[in-house]
Design goal:
CATH class of the largest domain: Mainly Alpha
CATH superfamily of the largest domain: Tetracycline Repressor, domain 2
Number of helices: 11
Radius of gyration: 21 Å
Number of domains: 2
Shape: globular
Distance between the termini: 42 Å
Strand content: under 5%
Oligomer: single chain
Structural class: mainly alpha
Helix content: 55-70%
Order of helices and strands: HHHHHHHHHHH
Length: 247
């Protein structure tokens, strides 16, 4: 290993150490209350060292979100969705997403922060680019299996792969977010017996939602309920869902 290669590796290891330390600080105090001094103490580095890698705590926070997205992509790949058909692949990916929300509950909660302008608007361009690429890689990976289903005739052709991925992502993420909120409420304040949240089994609802979405996506020769009116021409593919940066 050459000197330059070794220095680059050491630099990446130091950056990873800061990010991992920040996760504990943000988990305990949240983004607003956390300080760079606390992150530096946790990482056992000086505050000046942090500035060699990150311009602000928002930069570190977004780096953590990127780490969460990359871990989610690894989780998806470990299910080997390519070994089964398109519908089976989406089932495996959906189950992996549920498991990820359980095992990496804090990182999962952070994923929604990527859509919050107050978090991303002042993030360094390089950090934001990494975040955007990680988001697109996750959604793009799922989209490949939807497209295979469309190409093979398994899935309906009047829905684009990107449209289907957005629908799955928004629907399943929404249920998982509500699941976490419900769990938080139960842990801090007792819910009324007639509360909607108290009466819903979110794990069961997640499975049902996944089944309903797949049922809508599967192609039918006759009698299928269309997402678009037959009288309307299908619109072009929507742009792939991505983190939107406030300008």
């Amino acid at each position: 290993m050459g000197i330059l290669e070794r220095k680059e590796r050491e630099k990446q290891m130091r950056r990873d150490t800061i990010v991992r330390a920040a996760e504990g600080v943000f988990f305990e105090k949240g983004l607003r209350a956390a300080t760079l001094e606390e992150v530096a103490d946790k990482a056992e580095v000086s505050k000046g060292t942090i500035y060699l890698y990150f311009a602000s705590k928002e930069d570190i926070y977004c780096a953590l979100i990127t780490r969460g997205l990359r871990l989610l992509l690894e989780t998806f790949r470990e299910t080997k969705p390519e070994e089964v058909g398109p519908a089976g692949a989406l089932k495996r990916l959906g189950s992996a997403y549920l498991e990820f929300s359980r095992r990496q509950s804090y990182l999962f909660r952070m994923l929604s922060a990527a859509e919050n302008p107050s978090v991303t608007e002042n993030v360094s361009p390089a950090i934001f680019s990494e975040l955007e690429d990680a988001s697109n890689n996750v959604l793009g990976y799922v989209a490949t299996f939807v497209q295979k289903g469309i190409d093979s005739g398994t899935f309906r052709s009047d829905v684009t792969a990107h449209e289907a991925v957005v629908l799955f992502w928004v629907s399943l993420s929404g249920i998982l977010n509500l699941r976490q909120r419900s769990s938080t409420f139960k842990g801090t304040r007792a819910l009324k017996a007639d509360s909607i949240f108290a009466s819903v089994d979110f794990d069961s609802l997640y499975s049902k939602c996944q089944a309903y979405l797949l049922d809508l996506l599967v192609s039918r020769k006759t009698g299928s309920a269309e997402w678009r009116s037959p009288a309307r021409k299908p619109k072009g593919a929507v742009k792939q869902a991505r983190v939107v940066r406030k300008r």
